[in-house]
Every structure is written in structure tokens, then in C-alpha cells.
From TrEMBL:
Keyword Hydrolase: yes
HAMAP family in UniProt: Germination_prot
Subunit composition and interactions: Homotetramer.
Post-translational modification: Autoproteolytically processed. The inactive tetrameric zymogen termed p46 autoprocesses to a smaller form termed p41, which is active only during spore germination.
GO biological process: proteolysis; spore germination
Name assigned to this protein: Germination protease
E.C. number: 3.4.24.78
The entry's keywords: Hydrolase, Protease, Zymogen
Length: 337
């Protein structure tokens, strides 16, 4: 088996929610130039943007992601609960999301349905419902009193459909019913994701035009919320809120090994076979040990209650500013309710 084939097998074995992480893994096989994939990065005031376009089937296979556009916003400083930084991130998100709508040809008067995926009773999975609580909804005004709607607003509706374990109905089926009745031109689905990097948990926002599969980050196979299923474009917004215990163990091993490499070049004597394994081989080994014991837990930071509120408000503020021209992008925080 050649290196590229084995690289694709790794991507199939390890599902990555973040396109940026999928590209990092693919680059171990293909190098910086992945065929059919382009990436542009920029950073300003502690906010790092990565714009990835998967343009061909070859690129999709190499990345293990669907063809489409992906934007990742990384802000490590969000862990410090800096309110000024949160406002800057909301503004950056709003401007980036507005450009994204233009890139995927969504007109300024398109009717929008925001779907808050997840379980509001489980804090790490409550991102979508909290965003829905703070999104400025206007569809009822257009329906009941259209002559009183000021210029600069568009029709926006929102719903948090719950999860299969609570409702007994597939989330995708609930969304299909709402889409059929309300007839939006665009669906925005907000959901919690899983990351393979501890430092990206609660500090990263991904935007993608490929739809979303509820529960996929924690290994659940559910019917997707995608354009193919709903018949209208779907933009997914996700934030990693959990990480697997196996990932934490693997990252810890790597940090310990890096520490010893700074002290000595004879790390093979200290770590033996571990020193010859690459990252994915070590991760597979750790999972092989933890899974039979039921110890490959999903882990979230102890401050998750505040983190989830903060980043949900950032997304809601950004959506309000990007969807409604009348909302001032420089004062987005004033529009949450």
C-alpha cells in the first residue's frame, strides 16, 4: 500500500469535524500542496483565519471532507474571558460570514432559517439552542405586519428541534418539515463539534457550506441536514466543545516526548517503540487500550458553562449583524436579547 492510500485510510479511520485538522492530517501524506485543495491564512489582533477550499474529488478524498468552502476562526485568547476580545471576534465573524454568503451566492433578501442543533439539557451540546435564543427573528413581523418592518432587515426564523433521544424524531425530519412549511431560501445549522486538539476546544468557530450531520462529532450516525436532503443551501456553523480522552492521552504523550527531545537525542532508549510511531499510530494504540474498558470518554473543560454562553453570544451577535443590514456590525453586542 502506498503512502497516499494509507493516508486516506487514516482519514477514514479518524473522523475529523474541523477541516483545518483534516488538512493538517492530510499534509502529513501530501505535504503543503494537497491536490485540489487551496488554503489562505491571515491573523490580526489574536484572531487567526483559515480559508480552505476543497475544489475537486481528489482533494475531497485526500482531506476526507466534502467538496466546498470552509472557514476556521481560531482565537486562543477566548479562554481568558476577555469581553473586548469577544466583541472583536463577533465583529470579525460577522464580516467573514457576510463575505461567505456572497461567495456562495446567497442574495441579501434571502429568507433564512437558523437551526440550533443539540441538547439544551447537556451543556457541551447546548450551543445551537443558546444561539437560537439570541438570534434576532423577524419572519413573524413580515408575515403579520409587513408595512411596519423597517428597511435593512430580512426574514429570519429560528428553531431548536431537540435531539432524537428527547423527541423520538430524527432532527433531519423535524427540519425537513419546518423547511417545507416555512420555505426559507437558506438554512443555517449551528452545532457543537469534537476536536482532536485540546487548545481548539471552545476557542474555534468553523463555517462550511457542506451541511452538517447531527451527532457526528461524537460518533453517532444521523441523517444529515444538507442541501441534498432539504432542497435549499445549508451553511453549517460549528464549535468544538469536547475532545476524546484518547486524544488527550495522545497529546500528552507527544508533549512529554517533545520535552525529552529538548534534553537528549537518545529518546528511542527512553520511549522504545513509541518513539518510532507517528501521531495517528499512537492514537490508534491508545484507543485500542481505552475502548474495551469504556474509558475513551468525551471530555469538556470545567468552565464549559461560561464558555458555551460566551461563544454562543459571539455567534448570535455575528449572525444578527451579517443577516440584517440595519444592525451595526460595530455594535453587535447591543442586539442580543
Amino acid at each position: 500500500m502506498n503512502n497516499k492510500a494509507s493516508g486516506q485510510d487514516k482519514l477514514e479511520e479518524i473522523r475529523l469535524d474541523l477541516a483545518l485538522e483534516a488538512r493538517e492530517l492530510a499534509s502529513q501524506t501530501y505535504g503543503d500542496q494537497i491536490p485540489g485543495v487551496t488554503m489562505e491564512q491571515s491573523e490580526q489582533d489574536g484572531i487567526r483565519m483559515s480559508r480552505i477550499d476543497v475544489e475537486s474529488d481528489e482533494g475531497a478524498r485526500a482531506m476526507g471532507k466534502l467538496k466546498g468552502h470552509y472557514i476556521t476562526i481560531e482565537v486562543p485568547g477566548l479562554r481568558n474571558k476577555d469581553s473586548d476580545l469577544q466583541d472583536r471576534v463577533a465583529k470579525a465573524f460577522a464580516k467573514e460570514f457576510e463575505r461567505f454568503l456572497e461567495k456562495v451566492n446567497i442574495p441579501k433578501d434571502a429568507k433564512v432559517l437558523v437551526i440550533g442543533l443539540g441538547n439544551w439539557n447537556v451543556t457541551p451540546d447546548a450551543l445551537g439552542p443558546i444561539v437560537v435564543e439570541n438570534v434576532m427573528v423577524t419572519r413573524h413581523y413580515f408575515e403579520l405586519m409587513p408595512d411596519q418592518v423597517s428597511p435593512g432587515y430580512r426574514q429570519v426564523s429560528a428553531i431548536a428541534p431537540g435531539v432524537l433521544g428527547t423527541t423520538g424524531i430524527e432532527t433531519s425530519e423535524v427540519v425537513q418539515g419546518v423547511v417545507e412549511k416555512s420555505r426559507p431560501d437558506l438554512v443555517i445549522a449551528v452545532d457543537a463539534l469534537a476536536s482532536k486538539a485540546i487548545d481548539r476546544v471552545n476557542t474555534t468557530i468553523q463555517i462550511a457550506d457542506t451541511g452538517i450531520h447531527p451527532g457526528s462529532g461524537i460518533g453517532n450516525k444521523r441523517k444529515g441536514v444538507t442541501q441534498e436532503i432539504l432542497g435549499v443551501p445549508v451553511i453549517a456553523i460549528g464549535v468544538p466543545t469536547v475532545v476524546y480522552a484518547s486524544t488527550i492521552v495522545n497529546n500528552s504523550i507527544e508533549m512529554v516526548m517533545q520535552h525529552f527531545r529538548q534534553q537528549t537525542s537518545n529518546t528511542e532508549y527512553i520511549f522504545g517503540a513509541l518513539d518510532k510511531m507517528n501521531e495517528q499510530e499512537r492514537l490508534a494504540m491508545v484507543r485500542e487500550v481505552l475502548n474495551p474498558l469504556g474509558h475513551d470518554l468525551l471530555v469538556t473543560p470545567k468552565e464549559i458553562d461560561q464558555f458555551i454562553e460566551d461563544i454562543a453570544n459571539i455567534i448570535a451577535n455575528g449572525l444578527n449583524a451579517s443577516l440584517h443590514e440595519a444592525v451595526d456590525v460595530d455594535n453587535v453586542a447591543a442586539y442580543t436579547h
